[in-house]
């Protein structure tokens, strides 16, 4: 359905990174959770521990084969050991600290079954653990554990067991100025360790406390008064917290606090979804979030953004802060300059985060009982991105013009052959096609829920779908599988694809109501849509943020010359535009099915099941109005006209060399070249509509999907195969006398049956005439009838 086109370098960068600068364009909105990227774009999310089945097993073996309990927090030491705080709640109730060494082997370092494993109450394990909620590592490799239930912070030395470093076990507040082991803690929920070995404790009672290297405890923030967060701009010891739930310290000594309301808050609870900072002078400020639970602000100042239950965070050496937006299954990132963005990565329940010595981000996935690793070094513009500086070679330069050549599929139904010649591979269906900048041909195989690719050397590979990471979370944010390799993700019913000049693949998800993309590095993310049926109050005429857009049934997606996206929706009978401002707006259709509006604004016209779309080099939008059997065009000033088709018909009218609006059409797909010629997969033929509006037949072969590369080679699908019609802009090679006589061969003009009066007849058969398909505007001489 697509064609290869050339973009400016700024538009390629905008497509890749999802941000727009002056003079640049973006294919996805700046406010989208998959649009704006952090300074280092993450690599594919990979699981490093856990099977998604709760339990406690696997010690001495690979961590990826081990069962974990609910993950409460994670930490890493300088040697690369990963510590995981877990709690099992099913058959064997226990609290454990697990360790994964740099080789991936898992062991248990603390904890065990609770003393009363049959009780639903929290019980203390033989190691003195009960409800671990936060862990951290120290400079000497020691592990610190915050246990709110026992009211203490414990330390585990390498090779040793837990020892108390703060708290008496009494749920009170007291002891400042004295030994931390004699002090009272109300509810120690998290712990952090500074470079000098000092310990910071987040006490949900409303305090941040510090234990110095001599073991003396003091309160450095909070009054303990249960009231709305207050005190910004003043001394932290005079400020109030709602509930400090997480604490971190950066390399400069600044302290960060997640100041939150309860997860299951009632109307009487004080709302707070904030990240606050205590600087080295002891002054407290809010750096992100506020009272409202929301998901806004990406690409702008973090102080203006909304967060929702940012329970966990971690910092890096350069001052970057990563934090969980638990409600939206996303990890957000605050750059050193104060700008907030989101990683294009879905994590079902991010419950703990830490940056390892390898520079990767490790994330606990709570109820899924797993830990994931997200590489943060490098970007998608690195070695995995295609080189678009030079034009891809013409793969069919030596082929005879218009000579049909198979490029993929054996003609037998199936889904196999990856890694081998595409011509030996089996395709289930080839519902849509697209051609990348390097000549790669992308094949949408909806029956197998995958997108496959024919590489320039003729090898078949799968690039998206076929994995076991799926599901459609309701609401904005990434979709399950996002942030992983696209081959690990499940695809729903995808109906349309298109490829940007940087090699980014876009997919219209008909059944999940989303537009997703696969980056050149192979990561899949969500661009637009929330998977919820549209509400009558939704107003896409004035604009809806793409991350909140409720599509009906997206049929197709097309990349415009400026880098923005168009999406057709057959359920809503409209076509939408995802603009450079990050908003989705209607560009065609009133939402009422029908056929009307030619010559006027496209937004006031009726469409009837718009399906395939494409965009010309001049910005004209072409729409297949499926049930009306018409092709409609919307100019850049928003005026709609019909350029082909005369109304509903059960068959394709082969009449040629007449205005395209005078013939019946049964079109499956369309694509437009840079000159404005529109090519149609129409019934049993491939047809073309020139800029003058005259329709002719290019080839008498069935085509379900069509796509162009940058050299004028037309790819089309038929049955369980994909073929190419090379160099369609050149006249076909003269047919040999043998072919002319036989009426066959790739370059011959076959004989066909058409209705009487359709063309000048060479001979009649019953109520039809037998004619030779014309290849030019020269009139045919009439033959004898009989």
CATH class of the domain at 46-375: Mainly Beta
What is the rounded Rg? 31 Å
Strand order of the largest sheet: 34-38-37-36-35
Main beta-sheet annotation: 5 strands, antiparallel
Class computed from helices, strands and strand pairing: mainly beta
In terms of DSSP E residues, the strand content is 25-35%
The overall pLDDT average reads: 81
What is the CATH homologous superfamily assignment of the domain at 46-375?
Answer: TolB, C-terminal domain
CATH architecture of the domain at 46-375: 6 Propeller
Low-confidence stretches: 5-39, 378-389, 735-786
Signal peptide: 1-26
InterPro entries: 6-blade_b-propeller_TolB-like, TEN_NHL, Teneurin
Pfam families: TEN_NHL
Keywords: Disulfide bond, EGF-like domain, Membrane, Repeat, Signal, Transmembrane, Transmembrane helix
């Amino acid at each position: 359905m697509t064609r290869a086109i050339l973009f400016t370098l700024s538009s390629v960068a905008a497509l890749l990174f999802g941000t727009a600068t002056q003079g640049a364009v973006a294919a996805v909105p700046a406010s989208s959770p998959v649009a704006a990227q952090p300074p280092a774009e993450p690599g594919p999310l990979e699981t490093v521990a856990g099977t998604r089945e709760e339990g406690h097993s696997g010690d001495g073996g690979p961590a990826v084969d081990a069962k974990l309990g609910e993950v409460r927090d994670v930490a890493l030491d300088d040697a690369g050991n990963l510590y995981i705080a877990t709690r099992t709640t099913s058959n064997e109730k226990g609290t454990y600290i697990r360790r994964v060494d740099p080789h991936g082997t898992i062991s248990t370092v603390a904890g065990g079954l609770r003393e009363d494993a049959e009780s639903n109450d929290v019980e203390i394990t033989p190691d003195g653990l009960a409800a671990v909620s936060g862990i951290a590592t120290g400079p000497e490799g020691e592990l610190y554990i915050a246990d709110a239930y026992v009211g203490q912070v414990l330390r585990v030395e390498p090779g040793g067991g837990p020892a108390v470093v703060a708290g008496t076990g009494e749920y009170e507040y007291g002891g400042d100025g004295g030994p931390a082991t004699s002090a009272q803690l109300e509810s120690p929920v998290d712990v952090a360790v500074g470079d000098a070995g000092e310990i910071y404790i987040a006490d949900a009672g409303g305090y941040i406390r510090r234990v110095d290297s001599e073991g003396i405890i003091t309160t450095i923030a909070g009054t303990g008064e249960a009231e709305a967060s207050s005190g910004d701009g003043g001394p932290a010891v005079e400020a109030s917290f709602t509930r400090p739930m997480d604490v971190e310290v950066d390399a400069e000594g600044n302290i960060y606090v997640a100041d939150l309301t309860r997860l299951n808050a009632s109307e009487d609870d004080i709302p707070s979804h904030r990240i606050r900072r205590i600087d080295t002078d002891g002054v407290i400020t809010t750096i992100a979030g506020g009272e409202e639970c929301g998901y806004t602000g990406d690409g702008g100042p973090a102080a203006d953004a909304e967060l929702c239950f940012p329970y966990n965070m971690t910092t890096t050496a350069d001052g970057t802060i990563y934090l969980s937006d638990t409600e939206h299954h996303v990890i957000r990132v605050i750059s050193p300059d104060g700008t907030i963005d989101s990683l294009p990565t879905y994590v079902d329940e991010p419950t703990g985060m830490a940056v390892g010595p390898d520079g990767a981000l490790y994330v606990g996935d709570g109820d899924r009982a797993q830990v994931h690793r997200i590489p943060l070094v490098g970007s998608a513009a690195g070695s995995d991105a295609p080189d678009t500086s030079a034009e891809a070679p013409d793969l069919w330069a030596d082929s005879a013009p218009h000579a049909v050549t198979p490029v993929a599929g054996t003609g037998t139904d199936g889904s196999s052959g990856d890694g081998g010649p595409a011509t030996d591979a089996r395709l289930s269906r080839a519902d849509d096609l697209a051609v990348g900048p390097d000549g790669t041909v992308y094949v949408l195989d909806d029956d197998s829920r995958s997108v496959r690719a024919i590489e320039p050397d003729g090898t078949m590979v799968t690039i998206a779908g076929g994995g076991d990471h799926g599901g459609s979370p309701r609401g904005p944010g990434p979709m399950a599988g996002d942030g992983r390799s696209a081959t690990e993700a499940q695809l729903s019913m995808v109906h349309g694809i298109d490829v940007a000049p940087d090699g980014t693949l876009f997919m219209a998800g008909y059944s999940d109501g989303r537009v997703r993309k696969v980056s050149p590095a192979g990561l899949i993310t969500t661009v637009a849509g929330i998977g919820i049926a549209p509400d009558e109050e939704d107003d896409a005429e004035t604009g809806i943020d793409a991350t909140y857009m409720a599509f009906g049934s997206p049929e197709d997606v097309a990349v415009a010359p400026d880098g923005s996206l168009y999406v057709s929706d057959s359920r809503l009978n409209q076509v939408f535009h995802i603009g450079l401002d990050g908003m989705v707006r209607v560009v065609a259709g009133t939402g009422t099915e029908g056929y009307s509006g030619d010559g006027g604004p496209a937004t006031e016209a009726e469409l009837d099941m718009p399906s395939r779309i494409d965009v010309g080099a001049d910005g004209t939008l072409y729409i297949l109005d499926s049930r009306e059997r018409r092709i409609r065009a919307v100019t850049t000033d928003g005026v709609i006209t019909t350029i082909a088709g005369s109304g509903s018909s059960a068959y394709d009218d082969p009449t040629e060399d007449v205005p395209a609006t005078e013939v019946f059409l049964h079109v499956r797909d369309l694509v437009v070249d840079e000159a404005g010629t529109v090519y149609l997969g129409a019934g049993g033929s491939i047809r073309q509509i020139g800029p003058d509006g005259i329709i002719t037949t290019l080839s008498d072969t069935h085509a379900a999907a069509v796509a162009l590369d940058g050299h004028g080679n037309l790819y089309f699908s038929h049955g369980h195969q994909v073929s190419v019609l090379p160099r369609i802009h050149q006249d076909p090679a003269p047919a040999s006398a043998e072919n002319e006589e036989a009426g066959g061969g790739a370059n011959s003009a076959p004989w066909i049956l058409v209705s009487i009066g359709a063309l000048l007849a060479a001979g009649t058969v019953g109520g039809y005439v037998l004619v030779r398909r014309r290849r030019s505007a020269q009139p045919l001489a009439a033959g004898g009838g009989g």
